[in-house]
Recover the amino acids of this structure.
C-alpha cells in the first residue's frame, strides 16, 4: 500500500510531560483518515508536527517518501493543505482577496482558479464582505479554500466541524467527500465527534495519551461493529450445517456459542436450526458502535487534561 | 523567500493602516515644509527641534503599522499558513524583517518627498553633502527603530498588546533619547531672533510675523556665553559673540534676543505649538515666498548672521561617523536577537 504519511515513533515532550508518545501512524494514499481521540489526546500536536509548526522531540516522519529530517521536507510540504486548530485568513480582507494572498504566498503564476475554488466551498457570492464578518461555517469553508489553493494532494483538517450547526456540518462533510472522491485528495481529519467521522472515514487511527492505540480500516471496523446475534446452541457443528446453505455470515466462538451477522427473524431462524437438529438455547442481539469500540479500546473516559494538546 | 516577501509587501499595501501612515507622513512633510517656508525661509538647515518632534510622530506611526500587521499574523494564523506552505521559520522571519524595513523607510521617504515639494525654494541652497549626511542619519534611525519594533512584534501574539507596547515604547525611547541629548545643549532655551535688516521693503503683512527667525543656540553654558542687559549675545568678557561663541565679525550685527516667548520654550511642546500655529488658517501662507525672493541666504548674507548654518552642518558631519557604526551595530543586534527568538517561537 502506498502511504502519504508515515510517522516513526514521534515523541513530543513539554518538560516532563509527553504530548506524543512514540506515535506511529500510516495514512494510505486516497484515504479519508479519521484521527480519533479525546480532547488533549495529542491529535492537534500530531498535526502541528506534521505541518512543521512544531519539531518532534524524538522520532521522525515520512511525507511522500521524504523524511522530516531532510531539507526537501519544506518542498514536500507544498503538497499539503491544512486547517490547524482554527481557520487561518486575513480578517479584514474578502474571501477572494484572501485567496489571492494565498496564491501569492504559494508563488502561483496567476489567480486562475479562484472563482472555481470559491464556488466549490460555497463562497462565490460573498462579494466584498470581510472574512471576519463571516459566520463560523463560512470561516471554516474559507479556511478549507485557503488550504486548497495550489491543489494539494493531502488535506489536513483539525476538528473541522467544531462549533458548526447541523447544516454547516453537512456542508463540510459533503465538501470533504467531494474532494476525496472527485479530486482524489487524501484527507486527514481529527475529531472527537465519532458519529460524524463514521460517515466520512475510510481508515481510522485511535490515539490516547499521545500514543496511537490502533489503526484500522473502516471496512474492518464495520465488521467489528456491525449488528449480530450472539447465539447459544447445543452444538455449533449443527448450526453450521443449517446456516451454510443460506449464505449467512457467522462466526463460531466455541462448541456452543456463535455470532450470527445480519438481521434475522427469530422464528425462521429457530425453524431452520431445528431442521438440522440444532437446539437454540438462547439468543441476544448485539451491536457495537464506533463510540463503544473506541471506549473499549482506550478505557473509560478520564477527566480532561491527561495529555497536552 | 521572494514569494513570502511579495505576500508580506502585498499585505502591507492592502492594510488600511499602512496607507493611513503614509498619508500621515506626507501630511507631516507638507506642514513641516510650509513651516520651513514661513519661518525659516532663509534658514536652510533642517536639524531643528520641530523636525525631531515630527520624526517622533513618524516613528510612532511606523511602530503602529509594524505592530498591527505583524502581530495580526499570529492572531489570524498567517504565520501558520506560511509554515504549512513550506517556508522555514528563518525565511519567514527575514521576509517579515525585510518587508517591515521597506515599509518603514517609505514613511520618511513620503515625508521628505512632500517636504521637499512644499519647501523646495527654501531648501535649494542646501549643499548635497549636507542632504546626504542628514538623510543617512534619519534612515539609520528609522531602520534601527524598525528592527527593534519587529523584534518585539514577532514575539507578541496579541494585536492590541503589540500596538500599545511598540507605539508607547517607541515614544518613550525616543523622548528619553531626546531628553538625554537635551543636556548637551544647556543653552537650548535661549531663543534668539535675527533681524532681516537687508529686506528693503518687506510686504506689510510679513513685518510683524516673519521678520524674525527663531533659532536655538548650540552652546554649552560653560562657554560663558550669555545675554547681556541689552539682550545682546556676549561672551564671558562681555564682548558680542556669534551664535557659535566666536568673536563677532564686523560685518554682522550683534545677535540680539528680540523676543523670548515662554510658549516657545521646551522641545516637543514648543514644536507642537509651532506646528499648530502653522495650521492656523488666519496666517497668510504665501508671504514666505515673498520673503525668500527678497533675501537670498547664500548671496546676500550681508547683515544676516549665517554663521550658525556652517556650525550646524559641521556638527552633523562630525556626528555621522559616530552614528553610523552605533546604529548599524544596534540594527544587526536587533535582527539577530529577533531571529534567535523567533526560531524558538511556536507558530500559532
Amino acid at each position: 500500500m502506498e502511504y502519504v504519511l508515515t510517522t516513526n515513533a514521534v515523541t513530543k515532550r513539554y518538560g516532563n510531560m509527553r504530548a506524543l508518545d512514540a506515535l506511529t501512524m500510516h495514512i494510505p494514499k486516497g484515504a479519508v483518515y479519521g484521527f480519533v481521540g479525546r480532547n488533549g489526546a495529542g491529535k492537534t500536536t500530531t498535526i502541528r508536527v506534521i505541518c512543521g509548526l512544531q519539531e518532534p522531540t524524538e522520532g521522525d516522519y515520512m511525507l511522500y517518501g521524504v523524511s522530516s529530517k531532510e531539507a526537501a521536507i519544506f518542498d514536500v510540504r507544498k503538497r499539503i493543505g491544512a486547517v490547524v486548530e482554527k481557520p487561518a485568513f486575513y480578517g479584514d480582507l474578502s474571501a477572494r482577496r484572501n485567496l489571492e494572498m494565498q496564491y501569492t504566498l504559494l508563488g502561483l503564476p496567476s489567480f486562475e482558479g479562484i472563482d472555481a475554488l470559491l464556488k466549490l466551498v460555497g463562497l462565490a457570492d460573498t462579494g466584498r464582505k470581510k472574512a471576519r464578518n463571516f459566520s463560523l461555517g463560512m470561516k471554516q469553508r474559507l479556511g478549507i479554500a485557503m488550504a486548497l489553493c495550489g491543489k494539494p494532494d493531502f488535506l489536513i483538517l483539525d476538528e473541522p466541524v467544531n462549533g458548526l450547526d447541523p447544516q454547516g456540518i453537512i456542508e463540510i462533510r459533503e465538501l470533504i467527500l467531494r474532494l476525496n472522491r472527485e479530486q482524489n485528495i487524501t484527507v486527514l481529519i481529527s475529531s472527537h465527534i465519532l458519529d460524524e467521522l463514521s460517515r466520512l472515514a475510510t481508515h481510522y487511527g485511535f490515539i490516547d495519551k499521545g500514543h496511537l492505540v490502533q489503526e484500522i480500516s473502516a471496512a474492518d471496523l464495520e465488521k467489528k461493529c456491525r449488528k449480530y446475534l450472539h447465539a447459544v446452541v447445543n452444538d455449533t457443528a449443527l448450526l453450521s450445517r443449517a446456516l451454510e446453505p443460506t449464505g449467512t455470515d457467522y462466526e463460531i466462538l466455541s462448541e456452543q456459542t456463535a455470532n450470527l451477522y445480519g438481521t434475522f427473524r427469530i422464528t425462521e431462524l429457530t425453524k431452520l436450526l431445528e431442521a438440522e437438529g440444532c437446539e437454540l438455547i438462547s439468543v441476544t442481539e448485539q451491536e457495537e458502535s464506533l463510540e463503544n469500540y473506541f471506549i473499549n479500546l482506550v478505557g473509560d473516559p478520564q477527566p480532561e487534561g491527561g495529555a497536552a494538546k | 523567500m521572494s514569494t513570502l516577501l511579495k505576500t508580506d509587501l502585498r499585505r502591507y499595501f492592502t492594510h488600511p493602516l499602512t496607507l493611513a501612515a503614509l498619508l500621515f507622513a506626507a501630511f507631516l512633510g507638507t506642514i513641516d515644509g510650509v513651516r520651513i517656508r514661513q519661518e525659516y525661509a532663509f534658514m536652510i538647515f533642517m536639524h531643528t527641534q520641530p523636525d525631531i518632534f515630527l520624526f517622533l510622530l513618524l516613528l510612532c506611526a511606523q511602530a503602529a503599522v509594524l505592530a498591527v500587521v505583524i502581530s495580526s499574523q499570529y492572531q489570524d494564523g498567517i504565520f501558520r499558513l506560511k509554515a504549512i506552505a513550506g517556508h522555514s521559520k528563518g525565511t519567514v522571519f527575514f521576509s517579515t524583517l525585510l518587508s517591515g524595513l521597506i515599509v518603514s523607510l517609505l514613511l520618511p521617504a513620503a515625508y521628505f518627498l512632500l517636504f521637499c515639494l512644499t519647501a523646495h525654494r527654501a531648501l535649494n541652497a542646501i549643499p548635497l553633502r549636507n542632504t546626504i549626511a542628514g538623510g543617512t542619519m534619519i534612515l539609520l534611525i528609522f531602520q534601527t527603530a524598525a528592527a527593534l519594533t519587529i523584534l518585539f512584534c514577532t514575539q507578541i501574539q496579541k494585536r492590541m498588546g503589540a500596538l500599545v507596547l511598540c507605539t508607547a515604547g517607541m515614544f518613550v525611547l525616543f523622548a528619553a533619547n531626546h531628553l538625554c541629548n537635551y543636556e548637551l545643549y544647556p543653552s537650548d532655551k535661549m531663543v534668539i531672533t535675527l533681524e532681516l535688516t537687508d529686506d528693503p521693503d518687506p510686504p506689510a503683512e510679513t513685518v510683524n510675523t516673519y521678520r524674525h527667525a527663531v533659532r536655538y543656540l548650540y552652546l554649552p553654558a560653560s562657554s560663558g556665553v550669555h545675554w547681556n542687559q541689552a539682550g545682546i549675545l556676549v561672551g564671558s568678557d562681555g564682548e558680542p559673540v556669534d551664535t557659535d561663541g566666536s568673536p563677532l565679525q564686523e560685518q554682522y550685527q550683534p545677535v540680539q534676543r528680540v523676543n523670548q516667548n515662554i510658549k516657545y520654550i521646551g522641545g516637543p511642546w514648543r514644536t507642537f505649538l509651532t506646528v499648530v500655529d502653522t495650521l492656523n488658517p488666519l496666517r497668510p501662507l504665501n508671504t514666505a515666498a515673498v520673503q525668500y525672493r527678497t533675501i537670498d541666504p547664500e548671496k546676500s548674507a550681508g547683515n544676516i548672521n549665517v554663521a550658525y548654518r556652517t556650525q550646524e552642518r559641521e556638527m552633523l558631519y562630525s556626528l555621522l561617523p559616530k552614528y553610523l557604526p552605533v546604529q548599524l551595530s544596534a540594527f544587526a543586534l536587533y535582527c539577530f536577537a529577533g531571529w534567535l527568538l523567533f526560531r524558538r517561537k511556536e507558530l500559532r
User: Anything to note?
Assistant: Chain A touches chain B through 32 residues (CB under 8 Å). Confidence is low (pLDDT under 50) at residues 303-309 of chain A. Residues 34 and 204 of chain A are 5 Å apart (CA to CA). The longest strand of chain A covers residues 3-14.
